[in-house]
Design brief:
Number of strands: 2
Helix content: over 70%
Largest sheet: 2 strands, antiparallel
Strand content: under 5%
Order of helices and strands: HEEHHH
């Protein structure tokens, strides 16, 4: 006989594993696609990719649309965070994404994220 508490725990662990695999899988595929874009050559003259700002712009637009969609389908309380803190967070996020994507011209994706994993300040 299985108690309801252990069944709930199993459900919680299964959800945790699903979230872990989903996050890991999405970030892995994201890295593969991002590296393919930034390290590839394009056009008749085999030019390297140099549209980092456009790539970050697309990422930010998709992030905003996804977040808005989640807010629409969930019952979320109103955000009481001061607007200037959200703005500062957004500006620093865009700066980090620009620098991160620009670095892929010289460093491959696994190396970039290994460095992030061992850096205690990120």
């Amino acid at each position: 006989v299985v108690s309801t508490q252990s069944t709930g725990k199993l459900g919680h662990n299964a959800k945790l594993l699903l979230c872990f695999l989903g996050i890991f899988g999405c970030y892995f595929y994201y890295g593969v696609v991002q590296e393919k874009i930034t390290r590839g050559t394009y056009g008749a003259e085999n030019e390297r990719y140099f549209y980092t700002m456009f790539l970050v712009f697309c990422q930010c637009i998709i992030n905003a649309l996804f977040a808005k969609g989640i807010l629409l389908v969930t019952d979320s309380p109103a955000d009481k965070t001061p607007a200037h803190l959200s703005f500062i967070c957004g500006v620093t996020y865009v700066g980090a994404m620009l620098a991160s994507n620009a670095s892929l011209k010289w460093v491959n994706y696994p190396t970039k994220y290994w460095e992030r994993a061992v850096n205690p300040f990120q």
